[in-house]
Design brief:
193 residues, single chain, mainly beta, 9 strands, 2 helices, nine-stranded antiparallel beta sheet
């Protein structure tokens, strides 16, 4: 029962946010062609990886990664971001190992989300997004930098404080669904000697 109510609340909030966009927000972008408001990006990486731990058990392999993305401005405050990438079946790596009898490689949606800048202090990501949580020092101790969670997250910040909160869906099934409700906050301050 709680799970069902949780998803209903998520749906209602998301729907209200989408339909709260005023027509005047959209009017300034209508005259431009989609390709004038879209940036295309991508990268390709080819690497050799050797793992030498114990004699006789050494491993080496060649790997590649391909990512193709776009960012399209819907209006002055909303962007649509999408990225296709190799290795779409692995949630924390888009690398593919070369070999496997010339078989095809996974290629799919790595990211597909809306970035809505509500004002200078708040914005929302909704969809399959880039990692929304702060990683202290860029460390992968808590979250891998390649993780692209799915859900909705709101960010609020000013010069000294920040907060983000949201819900991400980890697994959905008819028997049992798993979601992560997150809250993260922090601040910038100096310590006097």
């Amino acid at each position: 029962m709680i799970s069902s109510n949780r998803y209903r609340a998520f749906f209602v909030i998301t729907t209200l946010l989408i339909f709260s966009i005023e027509d005047s927000m959209l009017a300034s972008e209508i005259d431009k062609a989609w390709y004038d408001k879209t940036e295309i990006n991508g990268d390709f990486r080819l690497r050799y990886e050797g793992i030498y731990k114990k004699p006789g058990q050494d491993t080496d392999r060649e790997r590649f990664r391909l990512r193709l993305g776009m960012k399209s401005r819907v209006n002055e405050s909303i962007n649509f971001i999408m990225r296709l990438e190799s290795g779409a079946q692995d949630p924390v790596s888009s690398n593919q190992t070369i070999g496997d009898n010339f078989s095809g490689k996974d290629f799919g949606i790595g990211r597909s989300y809306i970035d809505w800048k509500i004002n200078n202090n708040a914005n929302i990501f909704a969809g399959k997004m880039k990692l929304p949580w702060i990683r202290p020092g860029g460390s992968s101790l808590l979250w891998d930098g390649d993780l692209n969670p799915e859900g909705i997250v709101m960010f609020i910040s000013n010069e000294r404080l920040f907060m983000n909160t949201g819900v991400t869906v980890i697994e959905r099934s008819s028997d049992n669904s798993t979601s992560l409700f997150s809250f993260q906050g922090g601040g910038n301050f100096t310590l006097d000697n």
